[in-house]
Write a structure and sequence with these properties.
Layout lengths: L1 E2 L3 E13 L2 E10 L13 H5 L14 E8 L5 E14 H7 L18 E12 L4 H17 L5 H10 L1 E2 L42 E4 L7 E4 L12 H9 L1 H12 L3 E6 L2 H14 L8 E3 L16 E6 L3 H4 L5 E5 L4 E3 L13 H13 L20 H19 L7 E5 L5 E4 L1 H7 L6 H8 L1 H10 L3 E2 L3 H8 L1 H7 L3 H19 L15 H5 L12 H17 L10 E2 L6 H5 L9 H16 L3 H14 L3 H13 L6 E3 L1 H16 L9 H9 L2 E4 L5 E3 L13 H23 L8 E3 L5 E3 L2 H11 L5 H30 L8 H5 L39 H19 L4 H31 L19 E11 L18 E8 L2 E8 L9 E6 L3 E10 L6 E9 L3 E7 L5 H15 L8 H4 L12 H4 L3 H15 L3 H4 L15 H6 L6 H7 L10 H10 L1 H9 L16 E4 L15 E4 L4 H8 L9 E5 L6 E5 L4 H8 L11 H18 L2 H7 L26 H10 L32 H4 L23 E6 ...
Parallel strand pairs: 10-12, 10-13, 11-12, 19-20, 34-37, 35-36, 35-37
Antiparallel strand pairs: 1-7, 2-3, 2-6, 4-5, 5-6, 8-9, 13-14, 15-16, 17-18, 20-21, 22-23, 24-25, 24-30, 25-26, 26-27, 28-29, 29-30, 31-32, 33-34, 38-39, 40-41, 40-46, 41-42, 42-43, 44-45, 45-46
Length: 1919
């Protein structure tokens, strides 16, 4: 029984006491005045009556009611029901009281004086019970009695209220005598209908019903809950969900459970209380144990900044004060929002629970949602009434907790049964079995205070049970089956809701409320009411005393509590099988583990060794680890198992592997199962010393985790206590197990045993009770000693001098051990000892023994206090521990001493790598492990052997980084694994920490990535000291980024010991300012001796010209022509005279090529032939015009050198347009330049509107520039044909008015024409600012096809004249421009074009180098990932797409094909992009490669690279980040991108290239390797300066060392045909037009392939050396055993081309070997090959085969390879387009191809008796393919081979051509065409149509024609 109300208080406004202008409340009266013993009076009630502050108001407010909750020091909650009403005060009276105060302004504005003010007064009931409605009624009644002046004295009502007693929960007798009988009460107060005196009627004699009255004619029923363990919520939960919504409340729910701070805001106090009550109700069965204040007064707002979690409600009035709270979750009930600050992370429920809970809640709150889309929704779908809905929501949360905590009782450890049960929860096991170790939410909940309370409250096995216990024990199976079916879940929820509702409202029908309310009149009339009277305390006290006396005399009420054994529910194991991650084919793996252990104990070591790697892999799985512990257990006899050395080693390795994957929590109990085993397995060392396994398995986190030891200790204690009671119970063993429902016997659990003991406890005698308590206590004590020993075993390292402990674990960290663990501290070397924060200042704290003692002491203190060990025992333990540790250390010292004498474990021998000539070791081999990366081939996961991880050594040489070793897996141990890459290609190095599978040490390692698509993840072996590893890194960096380019391997090769040359400081580091001043001085000084001095003088050094372009431009000297020549002269390294330099320059490749192209010749006297349109200019011979250009340049004949100087200034880096190639047929030229300077662009395309009288310098430059372009155009034959003049002399350059004649003068000055156009504000169609047709080649899209139109000029559309004049017929526009300038879209903004369309600009978007750099990085990560991933968005193809590498290739190829097209149609093209040395170079080189077959030969390709890439100054050093200076710019593989483009073209046209794909890979590799000097410097100028330009061939000192990659290729090409493409069979003058769409491009296998057998196959000396070594060893090993011819080839291991060479290579090789055997001088392979080719040719001709290749290689293989593809511009007046048609034969430019695969191939193997089969033959006239005349040919129809061949004459043996009948489509009568033979009748003509072309033929007469047609037709039908 409990009092309904503990105290009744009247609180009023304190008129006398105002602090700082704020009103105060004070307690006017309180009953009873003396505190109850069981519940003291709570302090500070007056603050809670008016939470927003006490204030006077000018108008009467309506009465209000709310319940505040106060928590006392014992965590008891007091419910304060406050009823507040307002009483009037007279203002004058107030004035008197407040006379001294000047604070009046607080209450009212001065000037508006209210005659009447109202003060609040509160009636408060304080109770420990939460009956909101009852309190509302009682206080309302008291107020009504006062207001309406009822006859009942207030004292009586209050007295009755305070003496009313009700049962706490459904279980009390009601039929006691009334609380107050009338005779004891003074008559004046007696009321004959005090209902306390009424005996309740028989129908009400129920436990949970209580009827009360306060004696004022009222009557109300209070229903007490049946079980008070379940919270009572009314409808507050449903209200909360209505206000905030499902998701928000779930956030709050999770936040409350994970201990966040929660603040509710509302303007209603009662709603705040309800919301807080609702939140607590859904947390059941957990109880909230932090600060809980549903209504916080404004004065106490600073409570909100408390560091602890809370649930607090505050009036919205104080919203602004809550804004700056950073870590508080604010729920606004009125607005329905929940605001979570950024710094707060709420862990949500684990999926799928979260989703299922949300679904269930929405079905409760919004049942219509499910049917809202149905055409015929059910009629009666309404949500339940609020009270019912409330219970349904709570039922959902109950169901949720039953799922979260299912099986929790199986993880309870009972460590004491008597005198009180002590229970601990094994969190790790619970999480492990539920597979929720990673789940943040559950971890936090289990660590929280609420769950600790849950365990102590619900842990005991013998107690009263409630709804939750039943649910979690008996309904788990049902919940599991139904969880996926929402409707079944709802049924369950409804059942639970019913029980909850029944608990709260046992009699829902009873409603006997009779409570008076104040009458309307008294409420409405505002007459001056009497203030609330002062009550008679004596009368009230009398009531109370009377009741107390009566209670004392009556017998105590004993509620019979129904205790029972709490059911545990199904064990966790069954529940979790679904989620447990069962590994694939685990049965097979377990078999492997079992077999291996059997082999070890049977001493079959070889077998065990083979199985070991598989076992170590299997031990990743939980089941295998459990299996291992079980198997090992079987081999332990009497706690001991003695092994020999090798057995011991294997067992320890398996244990280590098993422990390696255990987390610090050991959630699967693996470490727990191994703990007894590590002290059982041992081996004998010398001198009678035994080493146990524990000394070898200490390096694991789990041993240093306090929770692990606690859990282990408790589970052992539980087992021992269980055993204790099993023995004491009767001797027969029946009691040990009991029958299950199903009849099978099962072990009694410890909890069941404890429950039984608890039940019997009251029946035992005192002696027995004491005896049991002592037995339990000593059991715990003995276990504590045992554990102190165990812990010292595992915590003290074998070598105690090492301090390993402090480094690797959290032992030094005293405070937070029980729930902290040090993550990863073993990984790196510790930066500091953990003692820095340990709190122990004593000097020895770093000593291992001390820290272990401290750790064990803390453990012992914790567990002994929790399990109730006596103080004497505890003290004894504390004295014992140091001795235990000391003894153990002494034992260990001996073991350590002896174990050192053991022979070390055999590690594989370090293999030496083969080095190149001139390559030297910088650091000798360090033992490392090569770890697998993200490529799966080598790990054996894709089938094939597991080559990685491998153990070996890493070597650092001057050239490469080499790993060489053997796989760790014994099955492939005889293979050698090599992985290497050139140091120069290293792009990224990062430290990693690696745990190796074999031995458990976590090692430091490095991950090295190279741009040759190689990745090395290495872990240093423990024998490698960390300073050695550090020095390795430093050396690596030094070699990767030498100070100067002369430090690279290509320069230092063969120079022993010189790692890097220091740069000459005086040469380089002058600032630009001083430099330009010096230049000016030099210039002035040299004016006089300019021409004389140039040859002898050694001029000043000089940085890159472009960087101070602007300063030079403004320099007055540079305007003068003569001076400018000598400003820049060549650096001091050239000692030779100018003439020698010139001859050297001429020797360079470029000139040979220019002569081949007919672009100008150099005679001895450097004279130029005037009739050529171009000449070779020597203006740049001293590299003064442009530093990055070659010395000799092709410029138009009419341009003098001085003009070149000026023109060059308009272009970036002075790279002005020069001719680099000329089309042999159309004579169109290809030019290259950099983009224009920003200033240049503007002056080039437009001038200011006002014409200036004197042309400025900019104008003159612009004019010169136009002259230059005009000169180029004039040099084109097509131009001179169309205009009849190609000089500029016919043009005038006056400023013109807009007159009609203006158009007739074709002006070179675009600027002026621009003025006219701009002058009349008319936009001329055809300007490129529209982004004309063909517009920009947009590259932003993933796969952007360019818009196949070129601007209006190509379309040939006419546009009105700029001045509106008529179109002059003379100047009708041509079809196309003479010159197209391909420029960068970004630079060309705002200009307009030449309106006379001599040239046109095509703006395109270029990829800048940054894009290439980033794309390449991503490409490397895609092709060589650093770790394996299963994420779908990390797959190879997805990463490849993200890298956009293919898109960049597509863009470059696309532009190149466009340029090829334009050149082919006769227009010249100038490529003018960026600085002219990246994209420009790529495009220009590709165009020449596609257009000119010469560049597709080995020599031609070399020439192309030397000319366009080396001479024209692609910045190899800078882009390759080869020195320290360019380190920051990073590696940008522009040249590699070009080679990739060539590879793509090669794939599409395999018969057009003389070189093979290997040649491209070879160049790509050595472009990045720095082995040769070829790709090292930025320009010819730099090469001359270092003296390397002309010395490449002249070095005779070291014949092995090639300085140039070309020499090396030549040398190698002579020896072997590696670079040669056997399919090479070019067509004359073939222009290639590759497909450029991404879908046509392939990933280059250079990026993907790897050869682990001997590293990258691009250093040939290594291959030959390795082969000779292999042969030697093979000869030695050949002891007569039969040698197998078979060899298994593995894709990532073997070099396929070496293991399985193609037939031709093999035959050539065999030939060479045979010649060598016969002693003949062996022919060069090329000669042999050429011989074969020619003989093959003649045979083919005899057989009339179209080309040798189709007979040599089965041509059907080539059917998909295209020879050419039509991309052409139509010459139409209507519109132009580029056709990228696949049907290339329709193209006008492509010629019919004879070398197509043909059916004849199929016959080539048969030879008929005659040399040929001739079915029908004779003479026919045939018309040539293109514009060729009719010629008589001898035709032969061959039916056997299905072909029609033709010869020059009947005697001719060489077939001129073949028409395949298989391609024939029709034979029709033809018509005579132009140029046909005369005097032939019309019907003699007939046409043969094949799929490729139409043949026009003509016979002698019509009958002959008919014969031919019939024969052909019949042979067709035969076919």
């Amino acid at each position: 029984m409990a009092r309904l109300a503990d105290y009744f208080v009247v609180v009023g406004y304190d008129l006398d006491n105002r602090v700082e202008g704020e009103g105060q409340g004070r307690i006017l009266q309180r009953f009873p005045e003396k505190d109850w013993e069981d519940s003291p009076f709570p302090q500070g009630i007056e603050l809670f009556c008016q939470p927003s502050g006490w204030q006077l108001v000018p108008e009467r407010q309506p009465a209000s009611f709310f319940v505040a909750v106060l928590t006392d020091i014992n965590s008891e909650r007091h419910y304060c029901a406050c009823f507040t009403f307002w009483e009037g005060l007279d203002n004058p009276q107030l004035k008197k009281v407040d006379a001294g105060d000047a604070d009046e302004a607080d209450e009212e504005p001065v000037g508006v004086q209210h005659a009447k003010l109202f003060a609040p007064k509160s009636l408060v009931v304080v109770s420990r019970l939460d009956y909101t409605e009852a309190f509302r009624n009682c206080l309302g009644l008291i107020y009504t009695v006062h207001v309406d002046g009822l006859s009942t004295p207030l004292e009586t009502v209050i007295g009755n209220l305070l003496t009313c007693v009700i049962p706490v929960a459904g279980g009390s007798q009601i039929d006691e005598s009334p609380v107050c009988s009338l005779d004891k009460v003074p008559q004046s107060l007696a009321c004959d209908w005090l209902l306390a005196c009424l005996q309740p009627g028989p129908e009400e004699r129920e436990d949970s019903l209580r009827t009360i009255t306060l004696g004022a004619g009222d009557r109300q029923v209070i229903q007490t809950p049946i079980n008070d363990a379940l919270p009572v919520s009314g409808s507050s939960v449903a209200q909360l969900f209505r206000q905030l919504g499902i998701v928000n409340v779930l956030y709050l729910f999770c936040a409350a459970l994970t201990e966040h701070k929660i603040l509710f805001l509302s303007s209603s106090y009662q709603r705040l209380t309800d919301a807080c009550r609702g939140l607590l109700a859904i947390m059941f069965p957990l109880k909230y144990s932090f600060t809980y204040v549903p209504i916080l007064p404004g004065k106490l707002l600073e409570v909100l900044s408390t560091p602890t979690p809370f649930i607090i409600g505050v009036n919205s009035f104080f919203r602004s004060e809550t804004q700056e709270l950073l870590d508080v979750i604010i729920a606004d009930l009125d607005g329905g929002t929940v605001t979570i600050p950024e710094c707060v992370h709420i862990s949500l429920l684990p999926e799928p629970l979260l989703q299922q809970t949300q679904t269930a809640l929405s079905m409760v709150l919004d049942p219509e949602l499910e049917f809202s889309d149905q055409a015929f929704p059910p009629q009666s779908m309404h949500a339940s009434a609020l009270k019912i809905q409330d219970k349904e929501i709570r039922a959902v949360f109950l169901w949720l907790f039953a799922r979260l905590f299912q099986g929790y009782r199986w993880c309870l450890h009972i460590i004491r049964i008597h005198p009180e049960p002590v229970i601990r929860f094994h969190k790790a096991a619970f999480l492990g079995q539920r597979s929720l170790t990673e789940d943040d939410f559950l971890m936090k909940v289990l660590d929280g205070m609420a769950f600790a309370g849950f365990v102590s409250e619900r842990g005991p096995p013998y107690r009263a049970t409630d709804l939750f216990d039943d649910l979690v024990a008996n309904q788990v199976e049902r919940i599991r089956q139904e969880e996926t079916c929402p409707h079944k879940v709802m049924n369950h929820v409804k059942e639970l809701a019913e029980q909850l509702f029944k608990n709260e409202n046992p009699y829902p029908t009873v409603a006997m409320h009779k409570v008076q309310r104040p009458s309307e009149t008294s409420q409405s009339t505002d007459q001056s009411r009497t203030p609330f009277p002062v009550l008679d305390d004596v009368a009230v006290q009398l009531f109370i005393d009377h009741a107390v006396a009566k209670l004392k005399s009556s017998p105590p009420v004993v509620k019979a509590e129904l205790k029972s054994m709490v059911p545990s529910g199904p064990p966790l194991g069954d529940i979790v099988d679904r989620n447990g991650n069962v590994m694939a084919n685990s049965a097979r793996r377990l078999e492997v583990v079992r077999n291996c252990i059997t082999y070890i104990f049977d001493n079959k070591m070889l077998e065990a060794k083979k199985l070991m790697p598989a076992v170590l892999r299997a031990l990743k799985g939980r089941t295998a680890r459990v299996c291992l512990t079980q198997e090992l257990n079987q081999h332990v006899l009497q706690n001991r198992a003695v092994l020999d050395d090798q057995q011991f080693d294997y067992i320890v390795r398996m244990m280590n592997c098993t422990l390696q994957d255990c987390s610090h929590m050991d959630e699967h109990g693996i470490a727990a199962a191994l703990l007894p085993l590590v002290t059982a397995f041992c081996r004998k060392l010398g001198a009678g010393i035994t080493q146990f396994a524990y000394s070898c398995v200490q390096e694991h986190m789990v041993w240093t985790t306090m929770q692990f030891w606690e859990a282990m200790f408790y589970s052992d204690v539980q087992n021992h206590i269980k055993a204790l009671y099993m023995e004491t119970d009767d001797g027969d063993q029946q009691s040990n197990s009991q029958q299950d429902d199903s009849g099978n016997r099962r072990e009694i659990s410890a909890l069941e045993l404890a429950a039984e003991q608890n039940r019997l406890w009251p029946t035992l005698t005192k002696e027995l009770q004491t005896e049991r308590v002592q037995k339990e206590e000593s059991t715990v004590f003995s276990q504590a000693i045992h554990y102190a020993n165990r812990m010292s075993y595992l915590l003290l390292p074998l070598d105690t001098s090492k301090n390993r402990l402090l480094r690797s674990s959290g032992l030094g960290d005293v405070e937070s051990v029980s729930n902290s663990y040090v993550t990863n501290s073993i990984a790196g070397s510790m930066a500091e000892s953990y003692d820095t924060e340990s709190g122990f200042e004593d000097a020895e704290s770093s000593d291992v023994a001390n820290s272990v003692v401290r750790f064990i002491n803390r453990f012992v203190d914790k567990v002994c206090n929790e399990s109730g060990v006596t103080n004497e025992h505890l003290k004894a333990l504390h004295t014992m521990i140091p001795d235990i540790v000391q003894m153990h250390i002494e034992t260990l010292d001996a073991v350590h001493r002896e174990s050192k004498r053991l022979p070390p474990i055999q590690k594989p021998k370090l293999l030496r790598p083969t080095l190149l000539p001139g390559e030297e070791l910088v650091m000798d081999g360090m033992r490392v492990h090569l770890i697998p990366d993200g490529r799966e081939e080598a790990t054996g996961q894709m089938g094939g052997p597991p080559l990685l991880p491998a153990e070996g050594a890493i070597f650092l040489t001057t050239y490469r980084l080499i790993f060489k070793g053997t796989p760790s897996d014994a099955l492939v141990g005889e293979q050698i694994v090599t992985r290497s890459f050139p140091i120069a290609s290293l792009t990224k190095e990062k430290r990693i920490s690696v745990t190796l599978t074999m031995d458990q040490f976590v090692q430091e390692g490095l991950q090295l990535r190279s741009c040759t698509f190689q990745l090395m993840k290495i872990a240093f072996d423990e024998e490698v000291a960390s300073d050695l590893a550090e020095s390795f890194r430093k050396h690596l960096h030094k070699l990767r980024f030498p100070q100067h380019v002369q430090g690279t391997f290509a320069f230092t090769v063969g120079q022993s010991g010189k790692l890097a040359l220091e740069p000459k400081t005086k040469d380089k580091n002058q600032s630009l300012k001083t430099l330009s001043k010096n230049l000016v001085k030099n210039a002035k000084r040299t004016i006089s001796r300019q021409y004389v001095g140039r040859k002898k003088e050694a001029p000043a050094t000089w940085e890159n010209r472009s960087s101070f372009q602007s300063e030079l431009d403004e320099d007055e000297i540079s305007v003068s022509e003569e001076v400018d020549q000598s400003v820049l002269t060549l650096s001091s390294t050239i000692r030779s005279s100018d003439r020698q330099t010139m001859s050297n320059v001429v020797e360079r490749a470029c000139c040979r090529d220019y002569q081949r192209l007919g672009l100008g010749t150099l005679s001895n006297s450097l004279t130029r032939s005037k009739n050529e349109p171009f000449r070779i200019s020597t203006a740049n011979r001293m590299y003064t015009v442009c530093r990055s250009y070659p010395g000799l340049l092709i410029v138009p004949q009419s341009i003098v050198d001085s003009t070149i100087q000026r023109i060059s200034r308009c272009y970036r880096q002075n790279r002005f347009p020069v001719v680099c190639w000329r089309h042999s047929r159309t004579k169109a030229v290809l030019l290259r330049s950099a983009g224009l300077h920003a200033k240049g662009v503007v002056s080039f395309f437009k001038s200011p509107n006002a014409p200036t009288a004197v042309p400025s310098q900019a104008d003159s430059t612009s004019l010169e520039q136009e002259k230059y372009l005009q000169a180029i155009i004039s040099s084109m034959p097509s131009y001179s044909e169309s205009t009849g003049r190609n000089t500029l002399s016919g043009f005038t350059s006056t400023h013109m008015n807009t007159s009609e004649s203006s158009d007739k003068l074709r002006q070179p000055k675009i600027g002026d024409l621009m003025k006219q156009v701009l002058g009349n504000k008319e936009d001329v169609p055809g300007t490129f600012s529209r982004g004309g047709k063909w517009g920009s080649i947009r590259g932003s899209g993933r796969l952007s096809a360019y818009n196949p139109d070129i601007g209006t000029r190509l379309a040939g559309k006419e546009s009105p004249q700029p001045n509106g004049g008529p179109n002059d017929p003379l100047f009708l526009r041509q079809q196309k421009a003479y010159l197209y300038i391909i420029g960068d879209k970004a630079q060309l903004k705002g200009g307009k074009q030449d309106s006379f369309q001599q040239w046109e600009v095509i703006p395109i978007e270029v990829c800048d180098v940054r894009q290439v750099k980033n794309s390449f990085k991503k490409l490397m990560k895609a092709c060589v990932p650093s770790s394996q991933t299963t994420e779908p968005n990390m797959s190879f193809l997805r990463l490849l797409e993200d890298s956009e590498w293919m898109t960049l290739l597509h863009r470059v190829l696309q532009v190149s094909v466009l340029v090829v097209e334009l050149l082919d149609t006769g227009s010249s093209v100038m490529v003018s992009l960026e600085d002219g040395w990246d994209v420009t170079t790529q495009v220009v080189s590709l165009v020449q490669l596609l257009s000119d077959p010469y560049y597709r030969t080995i020599d031609g390709f070399r020439l192309l690279v030397e000319k366009e890439w080396l001479s024209f100054g692609h910045r190899f050093s800078h882009r390759g980040a080869q020195t320290l200076g360019s380190q920051s710019s990073g590696f940008t593989p522009v040249f590699l991108q070009f080679l990739d483009c060539v590879h793509q073209i090669h794939l599409q046209f395999p018969m057009e290239f003389e070189f093979s794909q290997y040649y491209l890979k070879f160049l790509a590799y050595h472009y990045m390797s720095n082995r040769f000097r070829t790709f090292l410097l930025d320009s010819d100028y730099d090469r001359i300066e270092l003296g390397v330009l002309y010395e490449e061939k002249s070095d005779r000192r070291n014949p092995h060392v090639c300085k140039s990659v070309w020499d090396y290729v030549d040398r190698l090409n002579k020896k072997a045909p590696v670079f040669y493409n056997y399919m090479y069979s070019p067509e004359d003058e073939e222009v290639l037009r590759p497909y450029t769409f991404i879908s046509n491009l392939k990933v280059w296998d250079f990026y993907l392939e790897e050869t682990l057998s001997d590293g990258p196959p691009y250093d040939w000396e290594l291959r030959s050396r390795q082969e000779s070594l292999a042969e030697e060893t093979a000869e030695k090993a050949d002891t007569g055993a039969p040698k197998s011819q078979r060899h298994s080839v593995w894709p990532c291991y073997d070099n396929l081309s070496k293991v399985m060479p193609d037939a031709i290579t093999k035959l050539l090789q065999d030939l060479q070997n045979l010649e060598a055997e016969l002693g003949q001088t062996s022919d060069k392979w090329k000669d042999t090959w050429d011989k074969i080719k020619t003989t093959q040719r003649t045979e083919t001709k005899l057989e009339s085969k179209p080309s040798f290749s189709s007979s040599l290689l089965m041509s059907s293989n080539l059917s998909h390879q295209r020879r050419s593809q039509g991309v052409y511009l139509q010459d139409s007046r209507v519109g132009s387009s580029i056709k990228l048609g696949l049907d290339c034969e329709a193209s006008a430019t492509s010629t019919p191809v004879a070398g197509r695969p043909s059916t004849s191939t199929l016959y080539s193997q048969f030879q008929s008796t005659e040399s040929e089969n001739r079915s029908f033959e004779g003479i026919l006239y045939k018309r040539g393919a293109l514009l060729k005349p009719w010629k008589p040919r001898w035709f032969v129809l061959d039916k056997t081979k299905h072909e029609l061949r033709y010869y020059d004459s009947r005697q001719d043996k060489d077939c001129k051509g073949v028409i395949e009948l298989s391609d024939m489509e029709s034979v029709t009568v033809g018509t005579p065409a132009m140029g046909a033979p005369k005097n032939v009748e019309e019907k003699a003509f007939f046409d043969l149509k094949t799929s490729k072309r139409m043949y026009n033929l003509c016979a002698q007469d019509s009958s002959n024609a008919q014969l031919w047609m019939d024969s052909i037709q019949s042979s067709l039908s035969d076919a």
